[in-house]
Amino acid sequence: MNRTQWLDDLQKNISDLIARSPAADIERNVRSLVSQTFAKLDLVTRDEFEIQADLLTRTRARADALEAQLRALEARLDALDKPGAAQTQAERPGL
């Protein structure tokens, strides 16, 4: 039994007990209080969290790829700038 199911079962059992007692008003008040408290906490849903986690994973992968590309370009530039390079600055295409 996972944690969510256990909490759901607990809530159901408490609700059943309260429904059979004069404490039904207390239950409504507690539910309202808990709902208001959660609303103030600015929580996100599991779906929203998973979407953001996936977006972060893809963004990190893209940043890593760009970093590797930058290192490769810097290495090429360093190789061209070393003394004894075959081409001079003016002979390099595209510069």
From TrEMBL:
Cytoplasm among keywords: yes
Subcellular locations according to the entry: Cytoplasm
One cellular-component annotation, GO: cytoplasm
Domain of life (superkingdom): Bacteria
Pathway annotation: Cofactor biosynthesis; ubiquinone biosynthesis
GO biological process, one term: ubiquinone biosynthetic process
Coiled coil is among the record's keywords: yes
Record's function text: Required for efficient ubiquinone (coenzyme Q) biosynthesis. UbiK is probably an accessory factor of Ubi enzymes and facilitates ubiquinone biosynthesis by acting as an assembly factor, a targeting factor, or both.
Cross-referenced PANTHER family: UBIQUINONE BIOSYNTHESIS ACCESSORY FACTOR UBIK (PTHR38040:SF1)
Assigned protein family: Belongs to the UbiK family.
Protein name as annotated: Ubiquinone biosynthesis accessory factor UbiK
Species classification: Bacteria, Pseudomonadati, Pseudomonadota, Betaproteobacteria, Burkholderiales
Name of the gene encoding the protein in the UniProt record: ubiK
